[in-house]
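Researcher: Next entry in the queue.
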Amino acid sequence: MKNKLQSPLTFPCGVTMKNKFMLAPMTNTQSNEDGTLSEDELHWLTMRAKGQFGLVMTCAAHVQKIGQGFPGQLGIFSDLHIEGHKRLVAEIKSHGSLAVVQLHHAGMRTPYELIGEAPVCPSDNEKSGARALSSEEVKQLKNDFVAAALRAQRCGYDGVEVHGAHGYVLTQFLSSEFNHRTDEYGGNLENRSRLLFEIVQEIREQCGKEFLLGVRLSPERFGMDLNEVKQVCKRFIEEDIIDFLDISLWDVFKMPEEEKYQNKSLLAHFTELDYKNVLLTVAGKIRNGDEVKKAMESGIDFVSIGRSAILHHDFPEKVMNNIDFEPVKTPVSPDYLKKEGLGKDFIQYMRNWKGFVIED
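Model: Structure for this entry, 360 residues:
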């Protein structure tokens, strides 16, 4: 297993990752208010590259100003952001890691106070106060995802991941619960997934076949249907235009929430698919060496690490040296997190995770 974790992995586009560890894209609220890169964000991410993550992915970076999902979010919707991204890419790559930016729009999950106007959604949503996007705005949204990918390519990123998970705008389009449109972007699954596929296809066309391209999906919560998400995965596999699928499971080892899908584990629902050329990673409570081993033995191609990457900037190094590695027990002190490269805003954000940070 040690050799398997340390061995390189080449994506269909030809880009090679030096090992099987990806830093999961994580909200950290420590960029500047205008979406430009902060020193804290730079420090946090480059420490993970030093710690031997083969692929370092940014937090969700919004592709439109009105798509901001949280305070201190890294932006990629303007050329104003290019200088910071170039610095970040250079630092990540200097440690031999792949640099990937996650493209994001929060849709109805955008807090009103961040943008000063009603958030947007495929359809009007009373609970969130979101308004429906017009047909023109849907096309603009697609164009802005593509423009952000091209901006990322100009900054030197190896690739992008399109964020279609966790109830953000592309999930909202996928969901029959939130998407009640009557145009070509609403109705059956083909229509509800149309925007996601159009964005991905256009990014591939515009950025070329040597640009790393992934899609993140989550099969539960936020109006998602497990079987529909599997159908979307199958279509991506058949169309063979992406390099990897990143399936966020919340907990890699749990059973599905819906009884009708409990004939197998949530992970097994996805590892049973024939991925052909497309590579698969999963995220969700892969916390120690043994769980890395179990996840890899399930048939995935590489692991995505979140929580343990916060606790140990060099988690990949530690696991590759000792497959029985156990991370430090939580709660941990703010000083400990500071030493692991978290800025004060990120440490404050981590207080929202129950039992993670020692109370002052």
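Model: The chain has 15 helices and twelve strands.
Researcher: Noted, moving on.
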